[in-house]
Amino acid sequence: MTEWITHHRSIRVFSGLLLFMLSVTSIAILSAERSDPDPALQFSDPWVRQMPPMTRMRAGYVQIHNSSNEVISIIGVRSADFELAEIHRSIEIDGRYRMQLAQPLEVAAGHTIELKPKGLHVMLIRPVEPAPEDQIDIEFQLSNDQSVVVTFDIRS
Ligand SMILES: [Cu+2]
Questions:
Q1: Which of 41, 118, 122, 142 could be disulfide-bonded to 146 (CB atoms 3.0-4.6 Å)?
Q2: According to CATH, what is the number of the domain 41-155?
């Protein structure tokens, strides 16, 4: 009888722990998808160039304005639709374009930077099947611990 009570108690402790772990997991998922309501950086005119479905890489473009009074850096980007996302800079060397990693990307206080063709871009690498057709959500992680989810339109 004593043994049964002990056993019963441990099940209750275990299910309590399981519930706790589940709620921590859901909080983590919610915060990963949540945009901060008043982010230091504002994103405008976000778009990704339409590519054939089999293309392994896409480029995203957007204007980024820093409305705060301090330097804010973009320290990471990610999208659930791609295995990997990075900010790159295209540079022309001897008439050929090459790309280099441009992270962290600093935006000076009060300034606007433009990610545009042949310049800075968000590189989206290896789409998760099925490849998105209309819109792509990209999350920007900022140096002030804010994160911003921006919906990019796919355009030709
Ligand atoms: Cu690139």
A1: 142
A2: 2.60.40.1890
